[in-house]
UniProtKB/TrEMBL annotation, chains A, B:
<keyword id="KW-0028">Amino-acid biosynthesis</keyword>
<dbReference type="Pfam" id="PF01817">
    <property type="entry name" value="CM_2"/>
</dbReference>
<keyword id="KW-0057">Aromatic amino acid biosynthesis</keyword>
<keyword id="KW-0413">Isomerase</keyword>
<dbReference type="InterPro" id="IPR011277">
    <property type="entry name" value="CM_T"/>
</dbReference>
<dbReference type="InterPro" id="IPR050812">
    <property type="entry name" value="Preph/Arog_dehydrog"/>
</dbReference>
<dbReference type="InterPro" id="IPR008927">
    <property type="entry name" value="6-PGluconate_DH-like_C_sf"/>
</dbReference>
<dbReference type="GO" id="GO:0004106">
    <property type="term" value="F:chorismate mutase activity"/>
</dbReference>
<dbReference type="Pfam" id="PF20463">
    <property type="entry name" value="PDH_C"/>
</dbReference>
<dbReference type="InterPro" id="IPR003099">
    <property type="entry name" value="Prephen_DH"/>
</dbReference>
<protein>
    <recommendedName>
        <fullName>T-protein</fullName>
    </recommendedName>
</protein>
<dbReference type="InterPro" id="IPR036979">
    <property type="entry name" value="CM_dom_sf"/>
</dbReference>
<feature type="domain" description="Chorismate mutase">
    <location>
        <begin position="3"/>
        <end position="94"/>
    </location>
</feature>
<dbReference type="InterPro" id="IPR002701">
    <property type="entry name" value="CM_II_prokaryot"/>
</dbReference>
<dbReference type="InterPro" id="IPR036291">
    <property type="entry name" value="NAD(P)-bd_dom_sf"/>
</dbReference>
<keyword id="KW-0520">NAD</keyword>
<dbReference type="InterPro" id="IPR008244">
    <property type="entry name" value="Chor_mut/prephenate_DH_T"/>
</dbReference>
Length: 379, 379
């Protein structure tokens, strides 16, 4: 590069830096304004996530972008990122308390990661939260006495037993709820142990989400739903979406979604380890798509093995799902061994057909994801 | 909501809309400034992706964000998104032509997706590009006569044969290069068929990337590297990173990365299809992590089965890799059948240990990805 070029570039870069500093000031202003919206909503008890307002606002900005010859996706992506930041900050303001005369909420397993998250959210919403963990059973009965709700969030493999043996003497009006990732058995156990209101919840997110905005919580109704309606309202105020489901239907879906997928990811990691794959080397060669997949595998192994053992070993049905999977794997492998390219293509096309409109939808979704993975790359 | 609340919210939303419109104006200004940088770089032949300048600029903005009580990740994410947009726009300006006295570039397979992408990039850089496709072999010899480079990008299963039978009479000085996703055999075939300069390339990205910025191209040297140095320079000017590798090492990594991963994804889709999974239902229950995984599976089936058959059937080594994988799957399944939770946890911990520092790194990377997947969600 000659001196003139260097000078021109430096000059332009100073101007860009100036624009970026103005961006920061606008961000500060926007975050403050949305915080004020949050405060108004907080006072009125309105949910923080307003999909319709969001959609209308994005549509207007997209149109304005087009008029200015800016890609509409650019402004949408940036505004979504800003909204995420505002959702994260909502927690600082606290949330409206929907039920003000509940009494205490006792969280059984309150020291677990999900327990801590719910303790935080409930406390931010003005509830009195007490915690019972493994070694606290002696003090538990005195806590239960004043409990308006008991929320169970302990490892799956002990959930039903704890419900049956420790939670069978709750006050009649107390709500009994759980956060276990399977629902049929815990719900049954709760209905047997307790004669009052019962509800099963499954938060469909990890405890490392910064905010509940747009996250999903599955609800399986147990008994006396009018008594815990406020709880669902409260969760909506946190920004989450409530999806109602029958426990059995939920559990069947989870066999495909959780147990099988986790198991398959586990085997993939195990395989890399046994092949003594050179991760540095793999990453060097990696396309964004593989980097993403590798990250999803590595993610599993950064977490508590007990958690995954619990999920995988909890459901008998998942053993069948996993066995079916291996049968399909074997039969696909035999195509490969026979070198039967044509049969592979036929099976592929069958599956494509079955995916139907979902396949192109997934392709465009994943393209957006891969682009954002590529954005994160640096030398 | 009462009237006062509605009024307050409307007022605040108007102010937010105003901020967002100012954002759009800053975006327009920034895109224009970066386009000017691009024009200066274009004239000087400097690569568009400048990692050091990028890192220094981001570090400054992050610090300024912290001083303004804004999350540094917020400004980094937004600036990365803006940079992506600018990279996309670079193509409109064109790129500096590194080698001005090359003669024609003939792309064998120029109608394929990757062939089209390279035709576009080379044309934007001022090269004369001619295309040979399946039915053009009659005219090929006349095109080859004036060729400074022949670039092969056709299905893997015919690559070596076409090289041997059709590309064995190129002018001595002509560069012979290929873009196949395996490298050892095509490279050998090229070295045998042609006595002049030979190089193998593997672009580590799909043809649907909008820009080559930050993408990786693997280079396996063949013969007379000083004769095709300009090509690697040219690719760098497009923004990509060149990673040099031995063909065999590359192919071994690809067995783990591509063949096995694609096969495993194929089986996962096949399995969903055979179980007649209710995709609507699965999506309703889906956490961001599963939505992402499902999207990665669906993505495969939106594409050409021949492409995947080519990749999976091309390498004999991948059959071994896939067989090893199924052995690991079987042995993990037997733990499950025996209900041996302890052994599962031990294996899990071994793999975690093997992942080492990569596990937490992948966890934080994937957290960022999952958050951006969640940002995209809407009702």
């Amino acid at each position: 590069m000659n001196e003139k070029t260097t000078g021109e570039l430096e000059n332009l870069r100073d101007l860009i830096d100036g624009v970026d500093q103005q961006l920061l000031h606008l961000f500060r202003k926007r975050l403050d304004l949305v915080a004020q919206v949050g405060a108004v909503k907080h006072a009125a008890g309105v949910p923080i996530y307003a999909p319709q307002r969001e959609a209308a606002m994005l549509a207007k900005r997209r149109q304005e972008a087009v008029n200015m010859n800016i890609s509409p996706q650019l402004i949408e992506d940036v505004l979504r990122r800003l909204m995420r930041e505002s959702y994260l900050n909502e927690k600082d303001v606290g949330f409206k308390q929907v039920k003000t005369d509940l009494g205490d909420i006792v969280i059984v397993g309150g020291q677990g990661q999900l327990g801590q998250l719910f303790t935080q959210m409930l406390t931010l919403s003005g509830y009195q939260v007490k915690i019972v963990d493994k070694d606290d059973w002696q003090i538990a009965p005195s806590l239960f006495k004043n409990a308006g709700m008991v929320l169970v969030t302990i490892p799956i493999n002990v959930t039903c037993e704890v419900i049956r043996t420790q939670l069978n003497q709750l006050p009649q009006t107390c709500i009994l709820a759980d956060l276990t990732s399977i629902k049929e058995k815990p719900l049954l156990a709760m209905l047997e142990a307790h004669k009052g209101p019962v509800v099963g919840l499954h938060p469909m997110f990890g405890p490392d989400v910064g905010s509940l905005a747009k996250q999903v919580v599955v609800v399986c109704h147990g008994r006396d739903s009018h008594r815990y309606e406020w709880l669902l309202e409260q969760i909506k105020i946190w920004g989450a979406r409530i999806v109602e489901a029958k426990a059995q239907k939920h559990d069947n879906a989870m066999q495909l979604v959780q147990a099988m997928r986790h198991f398959s990811t586990f085997v993939y990691g195990l395989n890399l380890c046994k092949e003594q794959a050179d991760l540095d080397n793999l990453l060097q060669f990696s396309s964004p798509i593989y980097r993403l997949e590798l990250a999803m595998v590595g993610r599993l192994f950064a977490q508590d093995p007990n958690l995954y053992a619990d999920i995988i070993f909890a459901q008998e049905g998942s053993l069948n799902a996993i066995s079916d999977y291996i049968d399909n794997y074997q039969s696909a492998l035999s195509l490969l061994k026979a070198g039967d390219r044509q049969a592979f293509i036929e099976q592929f096309s069958q599956v494509s057909e079955w995916f139907g409109d979902f396949a192109p939808q997934f392709q465009s979704e994943s393209r957006a994801m891969l682009q954002s993975v590529n954005d994160m790359k640096h030398d």
